[in-house]
């Protein structure tokens, strides 16, 4: 029973991510949503085949590092600049 629910949830979330990514590609480039829905997974498959699964994990690690660096930068600005103003010259 739980495996069925897990499979259904995985299918729903994957569909939402794919359709959301296709909508973003459509909004930015004007590409057809159906074409984007086909080309996004195809691009991911080609990336994994050419670079291997290791490339996927390395990219994920790099993106996590960028997010952590940005978070620390904003945190430092808030702590150091005590009289910061939201929407001021620093943000």
TrEMBL record:
- Record-annotated membrane-spanning stretches: 7-29, 35-53
**Mode of membrane association:** Multi-pass membrane protein
Q: Which Gene3D superfamilies match?
A: Sodium/glucose cotransporter
- What is its subcellular localisation? Membrane
What organism does this protein naturally occur in?
Answer: Suillus discolor
GO CC annotations on file: plasma membrane
Give the principal location in a single coarse category.
membrane
What is this protein's name? Uncharacterized protein
Top-level taxon: Eukaryota
Keywords on record: Membrane, Transmembrane, Transmembrane helix, Transport
């Amino acid at each position: 029973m739980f495996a069925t629910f897990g499979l259904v949830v995985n299918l729903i979330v994957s569909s939402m991510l794919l359709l959301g990514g296709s909508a973003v590609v459509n909004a930015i480039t004007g590409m057809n949503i159906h074409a984007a829905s086909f080309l996004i997974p195809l691009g991911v498959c080609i990336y994994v085949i050419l670079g291997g699964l290791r490339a996927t994990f390395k990219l994920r690690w790099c993106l996590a590092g960028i997010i952590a660096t940005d978070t620390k930068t904003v945190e430092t600005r808030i702590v150091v600049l005590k009289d910061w103003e939201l929407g001021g010259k620093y943000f």
